[in-house]
Write a structure and sequence with these properties.
The chain has 123 residues and is mainly alpha-helical. The protein is built from 6 helices and 3 strands. The chain has helices spanning 2-8, 13-25, 30-37, 41-53, 75-96, 101-122, and strands at residues 28-29, 57-61, 69-73. Helix 2 crosses helix 5 (75-96) and helix 3 crosses helix 4 (41-53).
């Protein structure tokens, strides 16, 4: 469902995750981004190519080592990310309208437990 919703906005989940990571970190090396997204360097390069073409990120090379490439989100990228996040929140709000307050509380409890378990497993 997330992928369908994102595709109507012209984005993929990996692109959204990349923008979120760059927004959170304020930028990073391409290799660090690949590790964070659990993708190969060629995959992250293709991903960043797509985002850069739309003016959402920019790359710069290290002055000390030209092989090292830094990537950061642009102001336009930050604004687009904010809009996507708001649209996704609204979508989730509309989806959860079908739940009673009890069901919503149960859902939050279950998701909290799953999130905590995922963090344990990923450490």
């Amino acid at each position: 469902m997330s992928e369908v919703q994102l595709s109507t906005l012209g984005f993929t989940l990996p692109e959204l995750y990349a923008l979120k990571v760059l927004e959170k970190r304020g930028g990073c090396k391409m290799i660090e981004l690949a590790k964070e997204l659990l993708v190969t360097q060629p995959a992250v390069t293709a991903l960043i190519d797509s985002l850069e073409e739309r003016g959402l990120v920019e790359r710069t090379r290290s002055n000390e080592d030209r092989r090292v490439v830094f990537v950061r989100i642009t102001e336009k990228g930050s604004q687009v990310l904010k809009e996507i996040v708001e649209k996704r929140k609204e979508f989730m709000r509309r989806m959860t309208q079908a739940l009673s307050q009890d069901e919503l509380a149960q859902l939050v409890n279950i998701l909290t437990k799953l999130s905590a378990q995922a963090e344990k497993l990923l450490k």
